[in-house]
Request: fold
Amino acid sequence: MEITSTLAARAYSANRIATEPDTTAPPGHTIFSSASAAIGDALRHSEATAVRAMTTGADPHALVQALVQTELAVETAVTMRDRVVEAYQEILRMPV
Reply:
């Protein structure tokens, strides 16, 4: 049980910076652009790992881990999209 709490604590601390504002970002840079870049990187990494697993017989554990990361990235992208659509619809419902 200790190892899972350690892994959870590490994952939380790694993602904690997502909730803090980035003061070093250029003016056109938003959290959405960095999130979409991270999702794209996860997808490319997963695809490369899958190709390595099929061609050279790479570690199957790495393949499973890459697929789980890709699933999480896609779920994150869908959640972000849903929240943006929800906010837009809420703005449309506001009386003028």
Remarks:
- The chain has a mean pLDDT of 79.
- The helical segments are 2-15, 31-55, 60-93.
- Residues 30-96 form one domain.
- Residues 5 and 11 are 10 Å apart (CA to CA).
